[in-house]
Design goal:
single chain, 175 residues, four-stranded antiparallel sheet, 3 helices, 37% strand, binds inosinic acid, binds magnesium ion
């Protein structure tokens, strides 16, 4: 446990552990997509650090872009997700890999899949940094993931609490 910006945090994954996992994932993706027309799509804002590190480990001539979603979390836990920034060009024939920071309830990823599947992409898969399977409400899983974690709130490496802590180089549980 340490104190960071007035909050108690506990490091779950160090910089080195993340680097190793991201390198391994990059190798797998480079192999799996070697004959495909890859378009890597980062989900803002949370994925920006993961995306930057991951794409530099994919040794292929792929394209990349970003989308942005907004989750309206009401009094109940059911989040209503809407697309704020979309990809404007043609996705026909593309092999899309969505890059997300966290797979939680699954509502965000489900919304993205629905949007892309209506536009004739050849394939749509996902790579997530963190997976909280115990929180899932949607019937969805990630094709690639770096770490599985229990139900707890984490920050760092792109993930925020109230827009802060995104730039921490490690992933930490917030108390
Ligand atoms: P889902 O739609 O419930 O799967 O939520 C996914 C989104 O919720 C992620 O992209 C994150 O932005 C956010 N989120 C879920 N859990 C955490 C967390 O522990 N820390 C920070 N953000 C989180
Ligand atoms: Mg997010």
């Amino acid at each position: 446990m340490t104190e960071k910006y007035g909050q108690t945090v506990k490091v779950l994954f160090t910089e080195d552990e993340i680097k190793h996992a991201v390198n391994q994932l990059g190798k797998r993706i480079s192999f799996d997509y070697r004959d495909k027309d890859l378009l890597v799509v980062g989900v803002l804002k949370g994925s920006f650090v993961f995306m930057a590190d991951l794409v530099r480990k994919i040794d292929l001539p792929f394209e990349l872009d970003f989308i942005k979603l907004h989750s309206y979390k009401g009094i109940s836990s059911s989040g209503n997700v809407s697309l704020d920034l979309d990809i404007s060009y043609d996705l026909e024939g593309k092999d899309i890999l969505i890059v997300e920071d966290m797979l939680d309830t699954g509502k965000t990823l489900k919304k993205i899949y629905k949007s892309f599947s209506q536009r004739n992409a050849r394939s749509v898969k996902s790579a997530v940094l963190l997976d909280k399977p115990s929180r899932r409400t949607e019937n969805i899983c990630a094709d690639y993931r770096c770490f599985e974690i229990p139900d707890s709130f984490v920050v760092g490496y792109g993930l925020d609490f109230d827009e802060r802590f995104r730039a921490l180089p490690y992933i930490a549980k917030l108390y």
